[in-house]
Amino acid sequence: MYIAQELRKKNIAEYILYMWQVEDTIRAFGCQLSRIRREYIEQFDYTDEQKEEETDWFGNLIRMMNEEGCRERGHLQINKTTLMMLEDLHRQLIDSTKFPFYTSEYYKVLPYIVELRNRGANKKENEIETCFNSLYGVMMLKLQKKDISPDTAHAVKEITTLIGMLNDYYFKDKSEGLEF
Q: 90 and 119 share a domain?
């Protein structure tokens, strides 16, 4: 909860990836709050009050996962909504002539997006979701200490640049408003 709150304020892209990881963490513990509390939350250097708040947060996420039917796979609606906001902003940026650097980076990344989408199971996912799925997949491979090919590493570097730019525009739009 504490990490999610900070990331949401500072880096919306990292926030989404973190929340996807939280969803998978909940699944890894069988959606059992008692196990999450005992085996996961207890390992952090939190006060008793913070542990209770964290437990409540995880409990709410588990409830939402059950209600939304994403116990086994998929993402919570709150995470889907955040991703849709980024996709909407992405569309506005590439449809405008006022953001040439973003558009240029997008066209650099587009072949990777097309290739990734063609390899994936969901060929209808939007471009930004494809980018996030690739970033999350590589993050999981790194956590498992698996090799990443040079081609994949290069694609992820370009995707990271695009998503970083989108992240910056997201916060600029929130603080100042962007003119499209």
A: yes
